[in-house]
Amino acid sequence: MSLLALALSLLLTADPTLKPVVVPEALLKVTAAPELSGLAWSSTLDRFLVVVDDTGRRDLGTAHTPLVLSLAPSGTLDETPVPISGISSLNDAESITPGPDGTFFLTTSHSPNKRGRTPASRRQLLHLALRGRALAVLGRLDLTGDDEASKLLRIARLPEGAASLDIEALAFHEGALFIGLKSPLTVEGGAAVILRLANPVAALREGRIPHDALTRWAALPLRLPLDGKAVCQGLSDMVFLADGSLVASSNVPKGSALDPGGALWWLPSPAKPSSPVLLHHFLGLKPEGVALAPSGSKLVVVFDRGAEEPRWAELPLPAAPLLAPSAGTPP
Hints:
Blueprint: H1 3-13, E1 19-20, H2 25-28, E2 36-42, E3 47-52, E4 67-71, E5 82-85, E6 93-98, E7 104-108, E8 125-130, E9 135-141, H3 148-155, E10 166-173, E11 176-183, E12 192-198, H4 200-206, E13 214-220, E14 223-226, E15 229-232, E16 234-240, E17 246-251, E18 262-267, E19 277-282, E20 287-292, E21 298-303, E22 311-316
Parallel strand pairs: 5-9
Antiparallel strand pairs: 1-22, 2-3, 3-4, 4-5, 6-7, 7-8, 8-9, 10-11, 11-12, 12-13, 14-15, 16-17, 17-18, 18-19, 20-21, 21-22
């Protein structure tokens, strides 16, 4: 067995230990049972900031309250959420990622709700800064505002007017913001598209995307086997590692007939982002968020389990030396 095959075999067969996320009763008094969607480490708070599908509580008339949750490295959510000032509501938050100078970027899905509507609260890309134990909005924009919906899909080389737009992944790297789509997938090949937004701080401050600032960066074929078929996946989160490589989590787009569970992927060379390496297939699970652990030496993955108790896991970082061609293997 080649070194490459052995390394991949070890990564794929080493089942990560899923740990429960402890949800305090006090937290459930102010917000819905958390469906974890994305996370980012805050060294200031010594906590992960976690975005969830639904905030507030409908029965209390506080649905879509602008807030995120905070998660200790031990896997326990804090009793008190972290509020967001500067917006009136937050609906279907999907990803949060560290930005420049201790700030964060957060996106909602920009997708229709169950009634087919896409209110403004679901169409937000935010630039946030910590102010004590609260987040303040520094800038914002709607990625589908005015003619931006067709512009975004046109740049992504996807069918314009697609009602299935679902944005679930963000990652900031070398001054640019990378935006990963869960759907739609490309017509040919069913690949997941990543867009690159140059100078996102200025774009969000101005509330618009400058000409040529948004470009198509990659289209990734993320396919998992199920019943002898290859099931195409969309992106659910992303994180750049210290060496510049990219780790991404994936799930099937909403409404897919087949669901083999989600996966974790690695792009060893983002300069050629076309051949993702499968790190782990999570059978029956939906990995929704991935981030670096506080030490930077591991990956932390959170899973959306609907009404069931949320779970999280730690996984080793992929290592380039392990995946280098073995002796006698053509490069």
